[in-house]
Amino acid sequence: MVKKISDFIGKGSSLLFDFPLYTKIKINLTVGKRIDYEMLEFDEELGPTILNHTEYIEGNDFRYLKAIFLNEHNFYHFCPKCKRKTYIVSSNFKEINEIETNEILTIGTNINSAEEEEAYEQHALEILKSRANEFQRIVFGETSNVQLTFQCTSMHQHKMLVNFHITEDGYLVKTGQYPSIMDFTSFNDIEDVFGNDTKSKRDFKTATILKSHNYGVAAFLYLRRIFERLIFNKAEVAINEGIINNEDFETKKMKEKVKCLHDLGLVSDFLNENKTFVYEILSKGLHQLSEKECLSNYDVLEEAILLILKENRELEKQKKVKKETNKKLNHIHSEMRKS
């Protein structure tokens, strides 16, 4: 699904620092409408005389496009240099007086027919296209490229650069940024879910890098590796303890393996409840889905994998606490029997 620029309303920092490079974002030049009513007079017999004014305004996409490149910005976001979240602000903001800031394109009063309404809409669209051309000329220049500069609000004021290109057929494309998308990704909040599993931690970071460069299928591969590694590690422990039979376990399908481990209390409820969805979607992504389909579904699959790993860590902690508590209870019981 193609992103449009207004999809980022309220999520501007995501577009600037996290959105993949060279992914086209559609700018739809549409006209919006807003109706205001004005009472001119009131007659006790005839009632009020009311005029309705239809304001034809710039659509969401164009208004948000202007906001990105003309407004000052203040985001609470991860700073790659500070290694923590802080406020990031525009550092090269300057007001451009030549660009029309009023969102109203034209106003129609008491429109009485569909033909009249269509004529107003067409006139408003022509004005909008003219404004869009003027905006592109002033902001993006002859090369159709522009660079935005930001800085964090720490004492060091670390600089950040984001480059954009606007195409002739109405798409915005992020063509570069510094620091890189990967640098803007903080793993501090999820470090604990991996525990000592350095392989899964490395695979997760690789998946993040691939996703940031629009390699959705390959990113799915690394998420699936994490899923499989968790299942195989749990199975290995159960096999070594003699709880399950290796040959019997190997013949099972993945969802059957998950159910078997869940019945033994080795994997979480969430993993068991979603055993059919998560693994099948990741596998289908490798063999049937397109890059775009994998990318559009990546965030949900990533969230599911992290939740599975988090619950796995909780299970391991509970198992450790239970083992230590049982040991202490046995010791107390033994001491009491001696007395």
What does this structure look like?
It is a single chain. This protein has 339 residues and is α+β, with helices and mostly antiparallel strands. The chain has two domains: 1-186, no CATH class; 187-339. The protein is 50% helix and 22% strand. It contains eleven helices and ten strands. It has helices spanning 12-18, 60-70, 114-140, 191-194, 198-212, 216-240, 246-250, 254-263, 269-273, 275-287, 291-338; strands at 3-4, 24-26, 31-43, 47-58, 74-79, 84-90, 104-109, 145-152, 159-166, 171-178. Strand 9 (159-166) and strand 10 (171-178) form a beta hairpin.
Notable traits:
about 350 residues, 7-stranded mixed sheet, 3-stranded antiparallel sheet, 11 helices, 2 domains, single chain, alpha+beta
Task: Please tell me what the overall shape is.
Answer: elongated
Count of helix runs: 11
Number of strands: 10
| Average pLDDT over all residues | 88
The N- and C-terminal alpha carbons lie at a distance of 74 Å
| Portion of residues within helices | 40-55%
Radius of gyration: 29 Å
Strand order of the largest sheet: 1-2-10-9-8-6-5
**SSE pattern, N- to C-terminal:** EHEEEHEEEHEEEHHHHHHHH
Structural class: alpha+beta
Measured by DSSP, the beta-strand proportion falls in 15-25%
Q: How many domains comprise the coordinates?
A: 2
Spans of 5+ residues with little confidence (pLDDT < 50)?
none
Largest sheet: 7 strands, mixed
